[in-house]
Amino acid sequence: MPENVVFYAFAALAIGASALVIGQRNPMYSVLLLIASFGALSGLYIQLDAPFVAVAQIIIYAGAIMVLFLFVVMLLNAPREDAAEYDRSHPLAHPGIGRFGALLATLLIVQLVWALTKVAELKTPVGSRSDASSVGSVVEMGRVLFTRHTFAFEATSVLILVAMVGAVVLARREGTEQ
Amino acid sequence: MIPLSHYLIVSAVLFSIGTAGVFLRRNLITILLSIEIMLNAVNLSFVAFGRFAGDVDGQIITFFVMTVAAAEAAVGLALVIALFRHRESLNPDAFSSLKW
Questions:
Q1: Is-contact A64 A73, C-beta < 8 A?
Q2: Is A80 helix (H, G, I), strand (E, B) or coil?
Q3: Does residue A124 register a pLDDT over 80?
Q4: B64: how many CB neighbours lie within 10 A of its CB?
Q5: Domains by residue range for chain B, with CATH
Q6: What is the pLDDT of residues A50-89, one digit of tens each?
Q7: A152 interface with B at CB cutoff 8 Å
């Protein structure tokens, strides 16, 4: 079954790269590994008949957002996690808070496993337009986006404007207004 | 076709990795990267649910999540730059005072 092999390869790559992202001490390696994880996720999107999302994942996430992260990592020039003076004061190192955190983590895992056991074992899509040519069609997606979701689309443009102004205001150096 | 539950398991594992990263790492940039992992895990379940429900709404909400993630990354990284300029550190424990 070639599609099974492709799925497990992409899933393993996405999970492995993401696990390495939080295991790295150097943020530069973390960003590069996250790009690999996003590439694997885009392969999963292609298997789900979502070519637009797959391409947007590569262009927007792996391209734009991760380049922004890389740029900031290089700009700040602080590759190492300065753990020496702060690591002892990690809040999870205190026994009481650590126990509470372990309890919450166990609770999250139990909830996720419980939810996953409740999933109906769907092997084929259900619904009226379940064929791949309809769900994967970019034309259909654009039509729905600009008819049923027009307000959300317009609100998104305001959000991006606010984020742009906010980023400029926050990153501006103080005292150089004139 | 791959069953729906397989995609949801991958999504749950990725979300747990992202959550662990937010709580365990002491670096602002790695914490932001962990948030991106969590957003992508949710995107994967949206697309999988949309595919198995025979609807394009899953892909459309993924499109909006990507836009919000871009805005979040821009504002978050601007905050990181402003904080680093004040304290010369990326450790969140260094930013314990409200005003300096």
A1: no
A2: coil
A3: no
A4: 17
A5: 4-94 (1.10.287.3510)
A6: 999 999 999 999 889 999 999 999 888 765 655 555 555 5
A7: yes
For residue A30, the Cα-to-chain-centroid distance in whole angstroms is 13
Q: How close does chain A come to B59, measured CA to CA in Å?
A: 7
- Chain B, nearest residue to A20 by Cα: B17
Q: What distance, in Å, lies between the first and last C-alpha atoms of chain B?
A: 57
ipTM of the complex in this document: 0.90
DSSP B56-91: SHHHHHHHHHHHHHHHHHHHHHHHHHHHHHHHS---
pLDDT of residue B84: 87
Tens of pLDDT, residue by residue over B43-99, are 999 999 988 888 888 899 999 999 999 999 999 999 998 888 887 778 887 777 776
CA torsion angle for B40, B46, B49, B51 (degrees, to 10)?
-90
Asked if A78 and B84 count as a contact pair (C-beta separation under 8 A), the reply is yes
Radius of gyration, CA atoms only, chain A: 22
Q: How far is CA A49 from CA A142, B55, B57, B80, B89, in A?
A: 15, 11, 13, 37, 44
* Residue showing tokens 């993401």: A18
Q: Is there a contact between B93 and A86 if contact means CB atoms under 8 Å apart?
A: yes
CA A5 to each of CA A99, B5, B6, B44: distance values in angstroms, whole numbers, following the listed order: 40, 16, 13, 18
* CB proximity B42 to A under 8 Å: no
Contact A122, B33 (CB under 8 A): no
CB A123 within 8 A of CB B1: yes
The C-alpha torsion from A89 through B25 and B29 to B78, rounded to 10°, is: -50
Contact yes or no for B59 and A141 at CB 8 A: yes
| Per-residue pLDDT tens digits for A85-104 | 555 556 666 777 778 888 88
